[in-house]
Amino acid sequence: MSDLAIDRDYRRGDRGAKVRLIQEWLTLNDVAVVPDGKFGAATEAAVLAFQKRRRLTTNGVVATRTFEALIEPMKRVLVDVPRKANLGATVVAFAKQHLKAHPREVGGENEGPWVRLYMNGNEGAQFPWCAGFACFVLRQACARQGVGIPITPSVSCDSLAASAQRNGLFVREASADHTLVKPGSLFLNRRTPADWTHVGIVTSASAEFFSTIEGNTNDQGSREGFEVCARTRGYVSKDFIVF
């Protein structure tokens, strides 16, 4: 991935896409700067602060070691988890690995390295990324278990629902036996009988509520948030894709 590599050392006075990438990673590491693609005094100060925090050579230059430290959270989520007893458990294990890294937007609505990771390089207001996140985790889990993907991956909640219906994996809330909703299932927030607006991963489920890890949400449960969150939800207006 281009977001996990730089082509040379970067320092004060440099400009361009890689400088913006460095600024995004600085902000994601809680040394916030404006990602404008200009390596000025503020960016240099942020680099120095990050280097000092991580006990790196403190010179304000982003070379390989500093950049590797900046991207460490994303590299951690790309590492395989131990193989689990079934696909659902592996989905949950990968989802928890992502949650721990605290993926979130930076630089604008649906923008930044994490969004590009989940959305095949796309970003911007027109690219809500909850389905991209869920499908990315599902792909990781299927690869780890050595099984095919049970639904057709998509960045569209409606397309995921349609694929699940075709494959006999769709459970409607109105007729749902909640015992069918297992860890690793996907939930869909239903707006109408044929329109879904948000998707996430079920991590546990009981008769009255279920817990989740979901992308592009926030503490208020918005379907257009800015980060990966763990939440607890009720069953009203929720349908499920069960594996």
How would you describe the overall organization of this protein?
The chain is α+β, with helices and mostly antiparallel strands and 243 residues long. It folds into 2 domains: 2-70, Muramoyl-pentapeptide Carboxypeptidase, domain 1; 75-241, no CATH class. Helices cover 35% and strands 17% of the residues. It has helices spanning 17-28, 41-53, 64-70, 72-77, 87-101, 113-118, 130-145, 157-166, and strands spanning 170-171, 186-192, 195-205, 209-217, 227-234, 238-241. Strands 1-6-2-3-4-5 form a 6-stranded antiparallel β-sheet. A hairpin with a 3-residue loop joins strand 3 and strand 4 (209-217). The two termini are 30 Å apart. The model has no long low-confidence stretch (mean pLDDT 95).
Question: How is this fold's topology laid out?
Answer:
Layout: H1 17-28, H2 41-53, H3 64-70, H4 72-77, H5 87-101, H6 113-118, H7 130-145, H8 157-166, E1 170-171, E2 186-192, E3 195-205, E4 209-217, E5 227-234, E6 238-241
Antiparallel strand pairs: 1-6, 2-3, 2-6, 3-4, 4-5
Helix pairs in contact: 5-7
Compose a concise summary of this entry.
With 243 residues, the protein is of the alpha+beta class. It has 8 helices and 6 strands. A hairpin with a 3-residue loop joins strand 3 and strand 4.
